Amino acid sequence: MSHLPLTKTLPALTLAFGLMASVSAAAELVIGMQQEPTSLDPTADATASIDSMMTQNVFESLTTVAENGEVQPNLATSWEVSEDGLTYTFKLAEGVTFHDGSALDAEDVVYSFDRAMGEDSVNPSKDIFEPIESVKAVDPQTVEITLKAKDAFFLFNMGQGDSAIVASESAETNNANPVGSGPFKFDSWTRGDRLTLVKNPDHRDAADVALDKVVFRFISDPAAATAAMMAEELDAFPGFPAPELLPQFEADPRFRVNVGSTEGEVILAMNNAKPPFDNVEVRRAVATAIDRDEIIEGAMYGQAVPIGSFYPPHGTAYVDLTDAYPHDSAKAEEMFEAAGVAGATMTLRVPPFPYATRSAEIIQNQLSEAGIDAKVENVEWGFWIDEVYKQKNYDMTIIAHTSPNDMGNFARGPDYFYGYDNAEMTSLWEQITTEVDPAKRDELLKQGQQMLSDQSVHAFLFQLPLLGVFREGVEGYWASSPVLYMPLKGVSVAN
Fold this sequence. Notes:
- By secondary structure, this protein is α+β, with helices and mostly antiparallel strands.
- Among the domains are: 117 residues, Dipeptide-binding Protein, Domain 1 (Dipeptide-binding Protein, domain 1), CATH 3.90.76.10; 203 residues, Dipeptide-binding Protein, domain 3 (Roll).
- Helix content is 24%, strand content 22%.
- Strands 11, 12, 13, 14, 15, 16 and 17 form a 7-stranded mixed sheet that branches.
- A hairpin with a 2-residue loop joins strand 6 and strand 7.
- It is globular.
- The relative contact order is 0.20.
């Protein structure tokens, strides 16, 4: 499943920062975020900002992922894999406790997975648990997970927020009062303003945690975000919403600017289950009407890389398909006419993220040039989640999908908000997930990109960049983000 940011973008991403040589005894880091989540439980909500704050900070999972994308031990200190590649035996860290003081053991892992896989599960990435046949507690420190078939992404997926290990006693209240086992504990949440975490002194790695307090301030307005940084009210704004103002910070010696990559594909999503977008020729006409270069320049001030399908340009399997539908307003108008929708009105529902709202204005004009009346509706995030994501009540929308390896969204069938139903794609994704040879898997991923482009499932716009502004004294942040979370365990700030 794709987590939706700032945006699963998809929507704000949080960064990890390295230790300074000299740090005050009571270290506090204040981080700006565009998006305030509606829940704090990464196992029950798709919003990317939940992972930004909670995953590997408050909640932990069996594995974790490093900046280079490498899977590393976490709650599981080690694991063994059977010869047939179907059974994983995990050894859990000794002496782990939840923030309420209760012990975390193999039974908690079983409970967490049973909860995620259950018929009544609301886990936003329930599909990543589909390959699992059984989860068994061998002893208090040993868990055995058996798969139905080989899963190339299994260990990686076990490090995501969706796979967080939770306690049965607190699972139902984690949405507002999260209780995990991580290096930071939930302290308070003032809705509309800020969320505060404090150091967990009982964590097994507490000696390596430099920060005593982390404050996330929710600032969606680009002007307000800029003012807060310039006033030094914030130490960091990892998902900075105003790319046009980055030169201002680059010229100021008080700050550092980072431009990195994410896994976030920004798309003009079309509801494939709803006329006229159930007609591939209409979708191709939309793609032909779109000028990516104009969108990137106007909405992102040039700070983005165009995409022609659903795969990050920095990935090993990337295929450049940006020329599949060259921008041509006159041709697009002819295509709309041939499809019987010339002059039609199409609604574009847009979540409150600058990359989306700015892109929408440009796309509205581009569709107008092709004879389409695009009505832009700017909506709040909660409305978007309910009406667009859950109820699939939309024509078009703009969203960044920030989860890695999430081409599988196109294999989820018509119940997913894309409304896309293609047995060939579902079969291909099954081959991709079960292919353990990286080179062969890349070839299959290339086929998937080509299929999505040929069918113009959506209009693919650009890869969401990681734009960050940091006060001097904050160091060691990840230059790019291979996952939705970035652990704060090793973070520090010089005062």
